Predict the structure.
Amino acid sequence: MVLTESELRELWQNGRRPLPAFSPGTRFSPAAQDFLKDHGLTVQFAAPLPSAPDAPDMPALLRARLDALHALAALTAAQARHFRLTALAAQLDALAGELTSPHTRLLPPHSPSPLLPRANPPPFVPDHLILRWLRRLRAEAAAVAVLARQQGEAHDPLAVRLDALGPALLDLERRFLSGELAWQVGL
């Protein structure tokens, strides 16, 4: 993923927010690099967690489906950036980062965040394209969880963690519809 200067500006919000830890492999456009240098900002990358020492070998089909899930999460984040939904894109980038190492990097069980009140309600977008991407990502996570269960007891913890992605993605959808992760006006 390549971040642009405008995406960094939106994430940083003129110093009102700290920059998030970016997933390993994140690159920055030349203008974004200049922006970081000019403002004295340092970039932190999320440290990869060590893989579980007793993790069983993963069957090729399950590994391929997890890779496809990771790619779909990254693609959904790219779509969110395309629609200038930077906060949603940051959440999806974090999710994609969690999917890079299938044994240990999956998100812990998710607790939904409370709805934040907004002064200006978001436009009504029940059929926005990003919702379809989120639903596709949720369906793929469920399918990979089923596949993990079919591989035997050794992969049940992976299936349980993949099952936890469903509610997390539903929460992202709800937060988008509520306006919490929608367009930021006036930035």
